[in-house]
Specification:
CATH class of chain B: Mainly Alpha
Structural class of chain B: mainly alpha
Helix content of chain B: 55-70%
Radius of gyration of chain B: 17 Å
CATH superfamily of one domain in chain A: Rod shape-determining protein MreC, domain 2
CATH topology of one domain in chain A: Thrombin, subunit H
Distance between the termini of chain B: 12 Å
Radius of gyration of chain A: 28 Å
CATH architecture of chain B: Orthogonal Bundle
Helix content of chain A: 25-40%
Number of strands of chain A: 12
CATH class of one domain in chain A: Mainly Beta
Strand content of chain B: under 5%
Order of helices and strands of chain A: HHHHEEEEEEEEEEEE
Number of helices of chain B: 6
Distance between the termini of chain A: 81 Å
Order of helices and strands of chain B: HHHEEHHH
Number of helices of chain A: 4
Oligomer: heterodimer
Strand order of the largest sheet of chain B: 1-2
Number of strands of chain B: 2
Chain lengths: 291, 189
């Protein structure tokens, strides 16, 4: 029987094992493979590019204005550039106006509690159920800082802060804690019913509402607003909007307790483009640029 | 097997794959024929077992390196392994049945390319789906991928038919020296 060196005999199983490990390895451990990908591209491009050119000669790629003259193309390009700038300026104006409005509304809900509102964009990456916010260790930002969107819509709490980013756990995340809330039974909010809401994991929260024993004329209904009323949260977060009642389910086990499904006013809290962090107010000389 | 010829053929085939992908996609970028699978199938049909397996791994690793995955944050990442393991299993499948095949028939290439492509796709989808069970910032939808892979596998049959004529013509240059016993024909040297 022909004996092979050990390295030859075990090279195939070892390669398969390495490939399996690489296939399931966390992404941050496999970033070095990008270097090999770049080298492979360097090798393949010299043949792919000429073939691509040949294909383009045989089947020309369709342009945006195939029959236009050079002058017409120049004018069209200039028109597009100006239109783009105009739309960008309009969008920026609209965004700033909304931001000023949100800051004003956010301050108005807690006039007696000094809260600094810091507006930050959400990084597009989703880390599991968490949001990644582009703000690191700034003054007052700690674990548990309240995060809102659209001034009054509660988004969640900061769960981790590091040098450049912070992680926010939305209230709708499956791993988020249940929250005590109150249902506004009428427009003025004079009639309320308490409930304990638990995140379902599909972007909604579910909870049971105790029917009021003293007042039967006010009933829980679809569309009613649900707001935060939980001592576990900072005082300035009280009465922030959790959402509206999306549907009411019958609870056969406890007929006196209706089960409500609440959905935040923002359909998907994980995909908001920007958030507002509600931080404790600093002294007037420390406030700086952020409000 | 002459590894230099194999490397040159792989180089050309990868060039074809990348250059023709936008032209040959069937209405969407996700359903397209593979040029690499027919090469892998051709080598697996003729080469000695070990060389066939290594060539499948090499082609798979290179395909992994030129197929970055989209991340949820808008970036992309290269994950080495899924295609390599898929090709390895596909190659095993061909090695298991090759003694029963009529090798110099282009239809053989068509059928085994379709089947191998589907087997490799299932492995790739399984790996990414298992990854997706944990915290995975990749954009991944297994059911969509399965449909696209099935259609791509069928589409690969067309590329396999065209490439089979080229590969059969070039077969002597590959220098295959296997003596695999065949069931229905003379032993191929």
């Amino acid at each position: 029987m022909q004996h092979q060196p050990l390295i030859v005999r075990w090279s195939m199983p070892a390669t398969i094992l390495v490939l399996l490990v690489l296939s399931f390895a966390p992404l941050h451990l496999t970033k070095w493979t990008n270097w090999f990908a770049a080298q492979i591209n360097v090798v393949i491009m010299p043949v792919a590019h000429p073939i691509g050119l040949a294909v383009d000669m045989i089947i020309p790629p369709a342009g945006s204005m195939p029959h236009a003259s050079a002058r017409e193309r120049t004018i069209a390009n200039e028109l597009n550039r100006v239109r783009t700038e105009l739309l960008q300026t309009r969008d920026e104006n609209r965004r700033l106006s909304e931001l000023i409005d949100q800051f004003s509304r956010g301050e108005a809900i807690t006039p007696n509690l000094k809260v600094r509102q810091v507006h930050r964009p959400r990084l597009s990456s989703l880390v599991g159920e968490h949001l990644l916010i582009r703000t690191g260790k700034i003054e007052g930002l700690v674990q548990g800082t309240v995060v809102v969107v659209d001034a009054v819509q509660l988004l969640g709490k900061v769960s981790r802060v590091d040098g450049k980013t912070s992680t926010v756990l939305p209230i709708t995340a499956k791993s988020a804690q249940p929250i005590l809330a109150t249902v506004l039974l009428n427009e003025s909010g004079s009639q309320q019913a308490k409930c304990l809401l638990t995140p379902v994991g599909d972007g909604t929260l579910r909870g049971e509402v105790a029917r009021s024993a003293t007042n039967d004329q006010w009933q829980v209904a679809v569309g009613q607003e649900v707001r935060l009323l939980d001592n576990q949260w900072p005082a300035h977060a009280k009465m922030l909007v959790i959402g509206t009642i999306e549907r009411i389910e019958r609870n056969d086990a406890q007929p006196l307790r209706q089960r409500i499904i609440v959905r935040p006013t923002v359909p998907d809290l994980r995909r908001v483009p920007e958030v507002i962090l509600r931080l404790p107010a600093l002294d007037s000389d420390q406030t700086g640029g952020d409000r | 097997m002459n590894w230099f010829v194999f490397a040159f053929a792989a180089w050309i085939v990868f060039g074809l794959e990348l250059a023709l992908l936008p032209i040959l996609d069937a209405g969407s970028g996700s359903v397209h024929p593979s040029m690499i699978i027919p090469l892998m199938a051709f080598v697996a049909l003729y080469a000695p077992r070990k060389q066939a397996l290594w060539s499948a791994i090499i082609l798979g690793v290179v395909l992994d390196l030129v197929s970055p995955m989209a991340r949820a944050d808008g970036g992309s990442i290269v994950i080495v392994g899924p295609h390599a393991l898929g090709f390895l299993l596909g190659c095993h499948f061909i090695l298991a049945i090759r003694s029963s095949l009529i090798r110099r028939n282009p239809l053989t290439m068509v059928v085994i390319s379709i089947m191998t492509s589907f087997i490799a796709s299932i492995v790739v989808i399984a790996i990414f789906t298992i990854r997706d069970l944990g915290t995975n910032p990749l954009i991944w939808d297994a059911s969509d991928q399965l449909i696209q892979s099935a259609l791509s596998s069928l589409y690969t049959g067309i590329s396999a038919l065209l490439l089979s004529f080229l590969f059969f013509a070039l077969a002597p240059t590959f220098g295959f020296h296997s003596s695999v016993p065949t069931r229905f024909a003379r032993t191929i040297k």
